[in-house]
Structure formats: C-alpha cells, structure tokens
Automatic annotation (TrEMBL):
PANTHER family: PROTEIN CBG27172, TRANSPOSASE IS30-LIKE HTH DOMAIN-CONTAINING PROTEIN. GO terms for molecular function: nucleic acid binding. It comes from Didymodactylos carnosus. Residues 28-61 form the Helix-turn-helix type domain. This is Helix-turn-helix type 11 domain-containing protein.
C-alpha cells in the first residue's frame, strides 16, 4: 500500500452481520421468558428456536440484560394467617424492647434423618465425564423411609439449653409436659434467672390446654397460643439460623 499509494489507509475490521441473534429472535426469547406461563430451559428453548444454547445465553445476558435465579421456597399464607402475623408485628413493635429480647427463651423441634443433607443447587462434583463424577461421589443415595430422631432445643441470648432427643414416636402433650417443659424451666432459670419469657409455636402439643395450664402455673411469663403467629419460621432463630448450622455439621 505504501509503494502503490504512498500512504497507509487503515480501517477497523468490519463487524460480521448477525445471522442468528436477530431482532426477531430477541423478541421471541423475550416473549417466552417474560410473558409465557409455561417455562422452558435454555436448552429446550434453543432446540425449539433452532439455535445453539450459546446464542440463547448471549441473547438473555447481552441483549435482554437478564440473569437466571433459582426459585426460593416460602410459606404459603392464608388471609387469616397474614392478618395474625400483621397483628403480631404491631404488638411486637409496641411492646418488645431490647431488654425483653434478651429475656426470651425460644424453642423448636426438628426431625433429623440418618441421610445426609443434600443441596441440589450447590453440591457439585467436577469431573471430565458423568461416569467419573459418579465414581467420585456424584450419586446421592436416599432411603425411602429414613430413620431418624426428633430433637428439641431451646435458645436465648445467653446460650442454649440441653437438647432433648425423642427416639420413638412423635411429641404429644404428655411427653412434652413430662420430658421437655421441666428441662425448659430448669435451663431457662440457669441461663436468665427466674424472670424470663417462654416462647412456643403453634404445634399441637404446645396448644393443648394441659400444656397451656402447665406453662401458666410454672413460668414467670410465657406467650400463649394466641400470641405467636401461625406458619412463621422466620421469627424463630432456631428455624432461620441454628438448625441450618447444625445440619451443616451433622455426620
């Protein structure tokens, strides 16, 4: 070019014309992802539109600016449950102070199975092929009816109570009164003194009138069955934190 014209005339490389990621394809993907009730995976969507999965991923990420999120499981509440939770929130905002929070003993029961805890989203095995992945622990085997035990635990600002393990059967009101409530009272007094508030949820053994009478006669203060809102695991530290930590450490 120098010899022929005496100068260099450089141009930026031409961008190849899109043959697959057209405006029509972007609109089709957008309509499917945002409007259609019946959802498809990126692989099935690519197959139905006769394009590669890489093209579909680029359309979703670059052209539409969307990200993929896993559905989270939450409680399905009725209108009555929503109203009770709202009423509890109003009551707690007016009456619960920091000094009271440090004097509440929360309790909960959880069944622990002998099968390990499996997280479908995060428990991954990296291997060159499926066969090698299976050999390296890529198969999670779960029994149809796993054995397990029911564990009761109480927790407060100053620590946790002794756990109570119920090996056979479920917890009815008689077992609850005979085996759990005395330990609750004793350990609660060791942790916080005689003046503390006892919390329990709406389990059948907790709501029984015999249980309510026992709590009224022995605890300095407790929240009756009408106080704690139904279907509310996000209010109890055992449900939203401590049980998960114990499951992570289980063997």
């Amino acid at each position: 070019m120098c010899r022929e014209f005496g100068e260099l005339s450089l141009k930026s490389p031409s961008v190849p014309k899109r043959t697959k990621r057209t405006k029509r394809l972007v609109q089709q993907v957008k309509q499917h992802l945002l409007r259609n009730k019946k959802k498809k995976s990126a692989r099935k969507l690519a197959k139905s539109l006769n394009v590669s999965r890489t093209t579909i991923r680029r359309v979703i990420r670059d052209d539409l600016g969307l990200k993929s999120y896993v559905k989270r499981v939450a409680s399905k509440l009725t209108d009555t449950q929503k109203q009770k939770r709202f009423s509890f929130g109003i009551w707690a905002r007016k009456n619960v102070r920091k000094s009271l929070v440090r004097k509440i003993l929360f309790l909960d029961e959880k069944r622990f199975d002998i099968d390990d805890v499996y997280d479908r989203q995060n428990d991954r095995i990296y291997a060159p092929n499926r066969e090698q992945a299976d050999e390296n622990g890529g198969i999670f085997r779960k029994t149809k009816f796993p054995q397990g035990v029911m564990v009761w635990l109480g927790v407060c600002y100053d620590g946790v109570t002794c756990p109570v393990i119920i090996e056979n059967g479920t917890i009815n009101h008689q077992k609850y009164i005979d085996k759990i409530l005395p330990i609750t009272l004793e350990d609660g007094q060791k942790l916080m003194g005689n003046e503390f508030t006892f919390q329990e949820d709406g389990a059948p053994a907790h709501k029984d009138h015999h249980t309510q009478t026992w709590c009224k006669d022995h605890f300095w203060d407790f929240w009756p069955k009408s106080r704690w809102p139904p279907n509310s695991p996000d209010l109890n530290p055992l449900d939203y934190s401590i049980w998960h930590e114990l499951c992570e450490q289980m063997n």
